[in-house]
Structures are given as C-alpha cells and as structure tokens.
Amino acid sequence: MTLAGLAVWNVLQNMQGAGLAPGFAFLWQGAGFDVSETLVPYSPADPYARAILAGTLNTLFLAAVSLVLATVVGLIVGLMSVGPSPIARAVAGAYVEIFRNLPKLLVLLVLFVAAVTGLPHVRQALSLGPVHLSNRSLLFPVPVLEPGHALVLAAFGAGCGACWLLARHFARRREAGQAAPPLWPFVLLALGGLPLAVALGLGLPFAWSVPQLAGFDYEGGARVSLQFMVIAVTLALYHGAQIGEVVRGGISAIPRGQTEAAHAIGLTPRQATRYIVVPQAVRIIVPSMNNQYVNLIKNTSIAIAVGYSDLMSVSGTVINQTFRPLEMMLLTMAVYLAICLCVTTQLNRINDRLRLKEGRA
User: Fold this and answer.
1) What SS3 class is residue 33?
2) CB 251 within 8 A of CB 279
3) Between vectors from CA 144 to CA 142 and to CA 146, what angle results, nearest 5°?
4) H-state helical runs in the chain
5) What is the DSSP letter of 146?
6) pLDDT > 80? residue 11
7) How far apart are CA 308 and CA 303, in angstroms?
8) CB neighbour class for 96 (10 Å; exposed up to 12, middle 13-18, buried from 19)
9) Residue 212 β-bridge partners
10) How far, in Å, CA of 314 to CA of 25, rounded?
11) How many Cβ atoms from other residues are within 10 Å of residue 190's Cβ?
C-alpha cells in the first residue's frame, strides 16, 4: 500500500508540474473526431463521453457475437475430438494445434488481407438475393421501424420473459420427477404469435429497407463492416480451439462406464451423449469456460489493428487529442473490468446451481 501511495503521489506531482490538473471534466468537451460505425447516434460534435459510449457498445457487440461463434465452434470441435471417427479426431486435433500455437494478431491480419484482396469490389459484390458481400461490408435488408412498432418490440420482450419463466417452471417440474410439455410451441407462440397479433391488432404497416447500388456504394439496408466480420471470425476460430479442448477434456473426464450403462439400457449413442454425457460434462466445463470467455472479451482489443472503432481505438484517439493518458487508461480498465466481472459473475452463478443440483443428486 505504501508503494502504491508513493506511485500515485509521484504521478500527481508530475501532472501538476506539467500544468495538468487530474480530473474527468474533459469528457464533456466536444470530441471532434468520427467513429467509423456505431450502434447509437454519434457525430463529431458530441462529447468525448458519447464517443467512449459508442466504442464500449461496439466492444460489447463484438464480444457477444464472438462468444456465440466461439462457443459453437468449440462445441463442434470438442465433439469431433472424442467422436468415433478417426478422421474427425485428426481434423479436430490439427485444428486445435494450429490455432492454439499461432498469435491471434497474426491470424487477424492474415484473414483481413485475404478478405480485402479476395472479395470483390462493391460494384461486383457477391449477391444472394437482397444480401450483398464485398470487400467493404455485408449488406442485408432490415425492417423499417415506425413509432408504433415500439409496442411490437415490447410484446417481443414480454414474450422472451414469458419463455424464460416457462423454461424455469418446466425445469423444476422435471427435477421433481413430474412430466412437462415441450417448450418450443410456447416459444413460437410467445416470440412470433404475440408480436404479430399486436401488429395486426394495431394495424401497423411493415416495410423493408433494401440495399440498392447507387453510384460507388449501396444505400439502404443494414451494414456490417468487413473489419467487424474478420475480427469476429478470428476470435471465433482462435478461441474455438481453446474451447474445443475444454469440451474434450470435460467429456473425457466422464467415466466410460456411464456410456456403457446407457447403451446397456437401450439408449442410442446420440441419446447417451445428450442425456448422460453432456449434463455431467457441463459441470466440469463451466469453470474453464469462464476463463476462456474473459480472455475472449479482453482479446477484442486487437480490433484496433484493422481499424475497428472499439473501446481501445476510441480511447487511443481521446488520449492523443486530450493528453489525458492516466484518466483514459483508468476509465478503459474500469470498463473492461466491469464487463468481465459481469460475465464471470453469471457463469459462477450457473456453476453454483450445477454444483447444488449435483449435491442433491
């Protein structure tokens, strides 16, 4: 504590000697720079705080997409690595060894260069109906939202909440040994039927914004930048290899007698995997997945290498303009810490529930 106090005192003295008073008042000054893509409205006239918010949301969106993709890739690779096919095991092993032993930044740069040089220009974009892919971005149609559509979105949110409550209720019934109906009909009704009924009842019109080539670029629709796609694929491939090893280790830790007993009572290999192996392996996998997810969130910072406007990129620009490295580094560290703590807290709760169920069993 003494050393930390001396370090803080030394930094404050140096800042005062340079004529800089520590503080965060600069966050409300005009940013004066653009952010390439944002999930919230932003202009260079907005304050630095708005730019940091835009970069934080970009980081969260990139992390969420990459976590889903990496989890799917890891599950596939992990199941392949313990499957009966020697070819599948060899492919999974080669994939894991390749991506586990390559720097993630190198993988990102190789994929980015390959995408920029390999994909066609905008005028020669690869088109599948209204979806267009070029070396700039991926464009696709999106519905045009009117003010009244907020009620439709609210109905969709209410449907999601109802599905979550039903899922918990059915899970409790199954744990108590009682029969429970399948969940998917209720999901279709709540997520599809309820918003549709609200829209039809209010007579709300539906229109689509479709991308159309106009001059040297497309107009309309929604756009996902090439940088975002390449970073998400890179993180999915790199961390998919790590997660694949976690899944393989969790499945391999299940005694072989469990699957032999499942086959003895007439379960097929798929049923044995679904009902016997996976529920037990999840209890082993979740703690290690916690580390992988946190590492993936932190590794989104490599997006700065290809010009994606994430939190690190925006923070670097703010530091260059304001010469407030201490404040911005502390703020950036606090944001990453908050994101990682939220993820680890949720996964720890899931792990605690699984251990509680195991104790009851």
Assistant:
1) coil
2) no
3) 150
4) 2-17, 48-81, 86-100, 104-118, 149-175, 184-188, 194-202, 226-252, 256-264, 269-272, 278-299, 311-322, 325-360
5) P
6) no
7) 5
8) buried
9) 219
10) 17
11) 20
Taking only the tens place, the pLDDT of each residue in 287-316 is 888 899 999 999 999 998 988 989 999 999
pLDDT at 20 over 70: no
Instruction: Using DSSP, state whether 137 is helix, strand or coil.
Output: strand
End-to-end, the C-alpha distance of the chain in Å comes to: 46
**CA torsion, ordered 282, 284, 288, 289, to nearest 10 deg:** 0
Other C-beta atoms lying within 10 Å of the C-beta of residue 106: 10
pLDDT, tens only, 232-246: 999 999 999 999 999
Q: What is the pTM of this model?
A: 0.84
204-211-191 Cα angle (round to 5): 40
Measure the CA–CA gap between 301 and 303, rounded to whole angstroms.
Answer: 5
Distance CA 293, CA 71 (A): 9
Chain CA centroid to CA 156, Å: 21
Tokens (6 digits) for 137:
């971005």
Q: Which tokens is 245 given?
A: 């090893």
Instruction: Collapse the DSSP code of 307 into the 3-class scheme (helix H, G, I; strand E, B; otherwise coil) and give the result.
Output: coil
pLDDT of res. 259: 78
Cβ atoms 186, 178 nearer than 8 A: no
The answer to whether the beta carbons of residues 292 and 239 sit under 8 Å apart is yes
For 302, the enclosing helix (H) or strand (E) is: none
Least Cα distance to 67 among 270, 290, 217, 279 occurs for 290
Q: Nearest Cα to 247, choosing from 83, 109, 33? A: 83
Tokens of 321: 């303009």
Dist CA 270 CA 283 (whole Å) = 19
| DSSP letters spanning 70-87 | HHHHHHHHHHHHTSS-HH
pLDDT of residue 359: 54
Asked if 92 contacts 77 with a C-beta cutoff of 8 angstroms, the reply is yes
From residue 301, how far is each of 186, 313, 336 by CA, in Å?
A: 40, 8, 10
Task: Provide the β-strand partners of residue 223.
Answer: 139
For residues 46 and 28, give the distance between their C-alpha atoms in angstroms, rounded to a whole number: 8
Q: Tell me the residue type at 164.
A: W
Q: How long a stretch of residues is the chain?
A: 361
